[in-house]
């Protein structure tokens, strides 16, 4: 396979859980050399989240872990020790990117913050993902995806008018506001380095990123001053032409925003009188008529209807149905991973961006065991066997522990 678009880029990933690892997964799938830098304790917590693939070394066998950490290597370092700090400093010398997701100031207090690292490597792109940013009144506050969305106003707008706020099944702030913004920021900073030769600090706040997802409703609020209410956002369920509907055996999604699509729907159900009612609000008499229309057919019947009438109507699938769909198969959005020891096929989501000349490789490296590559990476730095052994004896670094185990989300 051709070299990836990011071939030759070296990334030190000190992050854990979802936002940072998803960011570095994207970089790794497109060719970057990603080294997962973990502590000498349990490492990345997500390693221990069930379920696990039978036969795989336990620290590398979790389905959630593998979904975020294929194509990476792992080293374990105690950054509170002098020896561990020196290892990180040596790694930084020829790294292109350092990614971390600690609370602001943690690495500074350990003596390995950006101001120290940029003196060692002026070209380093240092990306810090945090909940509320490196400055501001909540820089020290703990939080998770739901908290950032709540404060950004997005959670409060999600759901119907008569319901409580509805959590998304996907982590919008973690991935959309954190991981994707970080990946963009890193690539933009690398591009700037091409011209200047200098790296820079990239500050990614999941709160900021989550708020940016409200670009359109925020624009109206900033102009008019009034905030929309839950159930009153045009593209979040307030219009009868753009919302999910129950059918006789499931649900479908109608996205007929343009007049031509709404007309196709109305004419298809032999209700041309509804064409002029496209933007009637939810709860109106017209809405109730549309509700009853959808209840009159099964999901499969509506799917067949949509194949004839071009009206942006799709079935609401379960995740299992989506993963086995012809669309996913055609787009190669489920991909195999060659994972040592696995007693059954390891299948993960594929790469979402397709390149014509430098395609992603989602099966370049298996998911790493905890500290699996400690010796290998230290040897690449020029450390001899005696020095590596001394660092291990001091607890400054560690390899894969025998019978490694832990617990998270289970």
From TrEMBL:
Alphabetized Pfam families for the sequence: CoA_transf_3 (PF02515)
Gene Ontology MF term list = catalytic activity
Concerning InterPro entries, the annotation shows:
CoA-transferase_III, CoA-Trfase_fam_III, CoA-Trfase_III_dom3_sf, CoA-Trfase_III_dom_1_sf
The protein's name in its UniProt record: Unannotated protein
Species name: freshwater metagenome
